[in-house]
Amino acid sequence: MVMLASFQAVDDAALAAIASLDEDELVERLEELYGDDGRPRHDMDKNWDLLHFVLTGVSASRPSENDPLSESVVGVHAYDVEPFISVTKATDVPRILGALRAVDIDGLRGRCGLAAFRKHHLYPTLAETTKAEEDQLWQSIKAEFEGLLGLFETAAAGDLNGIVSIY
Hints:
five-stranded antiparallel beta sheet, alpha+beta, single chain, Hypothetical protein yfbM fold
């Protein structure tokens, strides 16, 4: 099964509308929100765990509490539901954005090659690849970082909250 991550910026009213929903209603409402092309969002595909590792040195399956770089990928307040759903309130966005802006993504490449990804059993499982395929994977991770950074910039400018869903 492929697990994809979606990140969306929403106003307080949209966040309040999902706060008390049960698991089935929550997933259904998030699907509706993601279908609204007017809302800022970034779909990360399956490289969310790789990006989390690049930023933090650990898998997203073991997020670091109070680490804004970890929270940029997995959110701040996780719901106790399947699939994984988490929110980041607008008040947390500037702190996370500041941490993202301080990242030298190209400088992190040296510690985050395929060998490290395999050693830490990150998702997705990566097969042996050529140098060109590894370069392409890094460009994809870098693009995901830039997309996430852009979403946090948009959220900060609009005083918006964030919703993360991974399934």
